[in-house]
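Explain my protein.
***
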Amino acid sequence: MKLNSARQAWHDCAYNPSRGGLSGLAERSVLGTAVQTTDRGVTADHAMHNTLAGWVQSAIAKLHPQVQVFGEFMYGARSCDDIREAAEEVIFRMVQAKSPRMTAAKREKLEWVVKGVMRRYRYMHQGGQSANADPLAKPEAFRAWLWEEFGVQLESTNWDRDWGSAVTLIFECCEDLDRLALSPVAAVIYKMKSAA
């Protein structure tokens, strides 16, 4: 397990290293299945990975459940629809609590806007040091994507007044939870690197 970033450590701590590569592939093609063997290499890579992963998993387990589910949505290796939906619910409730009063119709559309912005945020921050550009930064592109993906139509008139501030608030809520999720993992990484 490489300790390059908190994002990568969060993702990699769920993996259990095993024989892979060409030797594992050759074994599967000959036997039709993978066979567990007791032979280990002459390195301590497996034990080292488990030790590092345990420290990271311990930091994750101590997080508030809402922060933890957001982190799992963003960086977890075993992400699923249940985790995605729970993370969307957390962000939706945060945005609702910080938003001015709104009509029921707008609140219903806000749920879909939250889903869309969270996918944008995830794309922007996965796979490294938040290096991906926002693919739907222009309101026209975002509106077209929401229509195509979810069948939700948002009006283009008064975009900044109706939805611009909501999109900004959703991004801010995502950043807040992201910071809360990654800080303890980054602290563990720093502690392990400074001890080495």
Q: What stands out?
A: The mean pLDDT is 84. The two ends are 15 Å apart (CA to CA).
